[in-house]
Amino acid sequence: MLKVPYVTNYLSEHFAEDAYATLEGYERRGGYEAARKAITKLTPDQVVDVVKASGLQGRGGAGFPTGLKWSFMPKGADKPRYLACNADESEPGSFKDRILMERAPHKLLEGILIAAWATQSQTTFIYCRGEYAFPGAQIARAIEEAYAKGYLGKRVMGSKFSHDVVLMMGAGAYIAGEETGLLESLEGKMAKPRKKPPFPAEYGAFGMPTTVNNVETFCHVPHIIGSGAEWFKGFGTEKSPGTTIFGVSGHVVRPGLYELPLGTRLDEIVFEHAGGLSAGRKVKGVIPGGMSMPILPAGQLDVPMANEFLRERKSMLGTGGIIVMDDTTCMVRVGWIVTYFFRDESCGQCTQCREGTGWMHKIFERIERGAGSRDDLEILLDVAAKMDGQTICAFADAAAWPVQGLLRHFREDFEAHVAHGKCPFPQSFEL
Amino acid sequence: MVISAETRARIDLEIAKYPKQRGALLPALHLVQEELGHISPDTAREVAEIFGVSPVEVMEVVTFYNMFYDRPQGRHHVYVCTNLPCSIRGARGLLRALEKHLGIGPGETTADGRITLGHEECLGACAYAPMMRIGGKYHEDLDLEEAKRIVDALR
Amino acid sequence: MPRITVDGRELEVSEGRTILQALDDLGLLMNGIEIPHYCWHPKLSIDGSCRLCQVEIEGIPKLQIACNTPVKDGMVVRTKTERVKRAREGVMELLLVNHPLDCPICDQAGECKLQDYAYEYGVPHSRSKEPRRAAKKRVDLGPGVVFDQERCILCRRCTRFCREVPGTGELGVFQRGDRSVIETFPGTALDNPYSMNVTDICPVGALTTKDFRFKIRVWFLDDVHGVCTGCSNGCNVYLSVANNRVYRYLPRRNDSVNQTWICDAGRMSYKEIGSESRLKHAYVRSASGSLEVSTYADAISAASARLRRLIERQGPGVIAAVASAHATNEDLYTLRRLLEALGTEAAGFAVPLGDHDALLVKAEKAANAAGARALGFVDANGLVDRIRGGGIDGLIVMGHDLLDPAYVGEPAVLSHLDTVIVLDTHRSEMERVAHVVLPVRHAAEKSGTLTNHDGRVQRVHPALEPAWEAYADGEVLARLGASLGFEGFERKWDVRAVSRELAAELPAFAGKDLGSVGELGKPLADASR
């Protein structure tokens, strides 16, 4: 079980209570009141409107406006509509969905229930990464409890609305966290993302209209419905309202989870909340949003953690997975690990991604071995450019951006590696 | 029949949850692997028949996902996370030391078939690095001594 | 009908089509409008993974793949911009990173889309210093196909083909990322009646036929239009010819007949052209009873002499003809005219039956059964009864399908006949009972038309010359008629003139003569379906 966040807010304020993970403990803290309100007092469209008005953006990394996404679902009784909960959290540096599943599985279910009512969907498939055995078990237990209480299944809370939730465990593939890769995996196939069009709202799980949302995104919904859109907008920034649970890892004194409003400055999170760099070292670089997001150098940590600001620094919020690296860190080795990951996890469909991720990693291998040259740096940037924005899904972008980021800010590390014929940082972590 | 009637019954329960049978394929492969340890061609053929798909399609799925094995494994599968947050906190050194401790190379199995030691990508425990996964259990905040104790205790 | 503009050219397209489909419908794709592609194929599902067909679409910031973008009225497409050019370079360069340097030993060289597009759209030199991925080579994938896993560019055409066309699905993509490989299920083979089509659709030399392996470089080959003669489907083919020899058949696209496919048996049927059992000499049975080699002219004289004697003694009513469904419409039309001149109506055609399927393979194992019927020939089993019953004494037999168990079954049934004249492409047991044997040309060695099961009249071209004296069946029959002194057979047999006569006399064939029928054929006027 993950430790409770060091800083809590509305999402995580009761996480310290073990019973909060049970239906009884959750209800004791006001759980399922928002769902009851939505189903008995609001129309589906009204719920969508509230979520739209709140400005909630998806918390899975893409940041798409949630209310807008829900409104894409077609209406009418001619075919079933589905929701999918993306619990495949696999972005390196991210572990926020994990704590939500472990300590607040009913909050997730409540958010799902409200979303189901809003989109008039009949089933939600929770796709949980296979390695998350304990979080998955928590969800499974919560589902049982919810069915037993009549909060799922036929006639939810005594209404005419019925909704089922099915939990499926994945089997180890980062790309199953991509929206349509998830749908393919859900259908029992390889998690190879689909070409778009058609989009999931038209052709989703099992060919039916489907909306896919991240775990955390669902978890904000009961709070939004319970306390209102205006209340929600009181947290965070104008363009990025609400809180998120930042995960801080790497060379800090206090790695862990921090629920803070969007727009909190990165340096505040790293130096104040997480206690600054461990072992008395200085910071060299910080990845702000999970390993797919370009790194920021020491001088650029004054950025508010919200997309509208991070974009100016050529990075993004992603999943708020903050990875802190101190001045012993060799950025070429970081790139080696990054490119190893993307090469391993590429589904292999698109030419540029399949071959590009392989080529980039092989170049890093050669540079690390001491056989690199300055031409390689240009090739890396060129291959990254050839991958960006030209594939079936954004995985290729995610593979390209970190390399671009490393070269943008830490070219000296690379040039030193090439010039010395080996890693010039004797204290750097082992590869 | 390689797959037991019990497992078959559990597969049927999964199938009932999905609008199309094939939705239960990954859950079924997990169940089958739980029973048999890995998915051999014969097993794949049986699974294919249950779901009305071709054996090729089953093998595609088995070879695509990290958690499905098409060949026998050690009794315990120990995975050390070697992604970025863990590596910058010494995960790779720990993994190499464990390999040395068990006397095997990367991804190999001990001679007595007890342990297969490998690495995995980010497991969502970044604040508690280094860490490892053994089956459904995470072992976090490791140092080398603790890691050795844990693997030695595996029977 | 939506109107779109491609590189400034306005086109009217059909609703519901993607850009590539619309251009293909108009016959413009890679034929005026160049959008190179690998994974897309007009007869398979859309894949979208090769990324080579990216184009610029006005109003959409990112490049779009033309294979999966539906046309919309007013859409403006650009294929020649710098962005498109760079995108293509990117795809080509990345495809070549792991591709082995096999060109010198690869059968595909010269007809390889990787070579072609790398040359046309790629970068001039490779920058990769990395070791290439090692994978399986020379895999015995199945009875007809050899597979090189390293050459594969993972366009997945082959896996889609096997699932969508024969429905056998032997191939899959195992693993993921740059370790992805095409495989069969362990212990199984790529083995279905259409397996070798994967070698056509594979853009590179990953899938090649065992039969063609290392035989000849394709740039020595001329591709002559023709038709497969294995069954009445009449799949359109290219005959790949060099050195007066056919090296292979390749399917030729005809959306009204065979799409882009051909069955394996049909593909391999080119071997009958150069077979050792070709009939290479004319024969005449001597007085002592042995079959002796003869000059062609002498053989024709011997045949006409026997027929004349028979007519004098018993009248023409004892003479019959067995037509062949392998012969062309022009050959069969000439036979009709000869039978008229002879004054006999006893005729039929023999065609062996075999397996058929729901795809291309038809039960009638010859190309022109429908033509024979359209020209007034009925099935020969009635005639066979008459032969057995003793009412026939002279037989002109085209081919040896008469020996099929459905007809006489064995030559001995004919041994009581006074005169048996055989016209054939191959040697056969007919020689046991023939009095005169005359070599004729295969469909690959002459001009003519054949009518497929669907009533489609399709033309063949001579791809090669037999290395011995042989003529089209029609020409032999005409010479026989001339030798018998019949009026109208004096002039040299001209297949084009005969074809025109045929089209003029039989309304169903109007506009289907050699000069008018075109390269994709035309249906008979009364063809149902």
The helix count of chain C comes to: 12
Tell how many strands the DSSP assignment of chain C holds: 23
Strand order of the largest sheet of chain B: 2-1-3-4
The CATH architecture name of the largest domain in chain C reads: 3-Layer(aba) Sandwich
Please identify which CATH superfamily of the largest domain in chain B we are dealing with. Answer: Glutaredoxin
Give the distance, in angstroms, between the N- and C-terminal Cα atoms of chain B: 29 Å
Q: Reading side by side through the largest sheet of chain C, how are the strands ordered?
A: 15-14-20-19-18-16-17
Termini of chain C, distance in Å? 27 Å
Low-confidence spans of chain B:
none
**Could you spell the SSE succession of chain B in H and E letters?**
HHHHEHHEEEH
Helix amount of chain B:
40-55%
The total of helices of chain B stands at: 7
Q: What radius of gyration of chain C results from the CA coordinates?
A: 27 Å
Query: What is the total domain count of chain B?
Result: 2
Walk me through what this model shows:
The complex is a heterotrimer of chains A (431), B (155) and C (529). Chain A has 431 residues and is of the alpha/beta class. Chain A has helices spanning 23-28, 33-41, 44-54, 66-71, 96-103, 105-119, 133-149, 179-186, 215-227, 229-233, 266-273, 307-310, 331-345, 351-369, 374-387, 395-420; strands spanning 82-87, 123-128, 164-169, 210-214, 243-250, 256-261, 283-287, 296-297, 321-326. Chain A folds into three domains: 18-233, Rossmann fold (3-Layer(aba) Sandwich); 243-326, Ubiquitin-like (UB roll), CATH 3.10.20; 331-420, NADH-ubiquinone oxidoreductase 51kDa subunit, iron-sulphur binding domain (de novo design (two linked rop proteins)). Chain A contains 16 helices and nine strands. In chain A, the strands form two sheets. Chain A has a five-stranded mixed beta sheet with strand order 6-5-9-7-8, with helices on both faces. In chain A, β2, α7 (133-149) and β3 (164-169) form a beta-alpha-beta unit. By secondary structure, chain B is an alpha+beta fold. Chain B has two domains: 5-64, Orthogonal Bundle (Arc Repressor Mutant, subunit A); 76-152, Glutaredoxin (3-Layer(aba) Sandwich), CATH 3.40.30.10. Chain B is built from seven helices and four strands; from the N terminus they run ααααβααβββα. Chain B has helices spanning 5-15, 25-36, 41-51, 55-64, 84-87, 91-102, 144-152; strands at 76-81, 115-120, 132-134, 137-139. Chain B has a four-stranded mixed beta sheet, covered by helices on one side. In chain B, β3 (132-134) and β4 form a beta hairpin. Chain B starts with a helix and ends with a helix. The model of chain B has no long low-confidence stretch (mean pLDDT 97). Chain C has 529 residues and is an alpha+beta fold. Chain C has three domains: 3-80, Ubiquitin-like (UB roll) (Roll); 128-272, 2-Layer Sandwich (Alpha-Beta Plaits); 282-439 and 470-504, Rossmann fold. Chain C is 23% helix and 18% strand. Chain C is built from twelve helices and 23 strands. In chain C, the strands form six sheets. Chain C has a seven-stranded mixed beta sheet with strand order 15-14-20-19-18-16-17, with helices on both faces. In chain C, α2 (82-97) crosses α3 (113-121), α8 (329-342) packs parallel to α11 and α8 (329-342) packs across α12. Chain C is elongated. The mean pLDDT of chain C is 97. Chains in contact: A-B, A-C, B-C. At the A-B interface, α7, β3, β5, β9 and α13 of A face α2, α4, α5 and α6 of B.
